Known about the structure:
mainly alpha, about 0% strand, elongated
Amino acid sequence: MANYERLEMWQHADRLAHAVHDLPASWPLEEKYGLISQARRAGFSVAANICEGSSRKGRKEFRHFLDISMGSLSELTYALQFARKRGWAAQGPWAAIEELRRERSITLWFLYKAVRGSEPA
């Protein structure tokens, strides 16, 4: 098992990426290469950057990739909000993915703070 797979945050981010990938099935087909693709890439990027950062040599580099991961999570947040306001996401699936996203946002912030440790921000 790779080191990143042991990180609880990565496991949750992986679940989020899969959930985001499945959600856009109800979105308009003309968004396939637009918002659907963007949301899927952002969801994937959250987990991928945790994976990449954990393989780096030090805390500072890992923190950099966690920064990118947090940015991707913010991008995903807006994509989901936009789709919801357009009426593309049914309440049930949207609520479930929103809960996953919200929890990951909190957990990712705590991981970032732990990796930062006593280093200057």
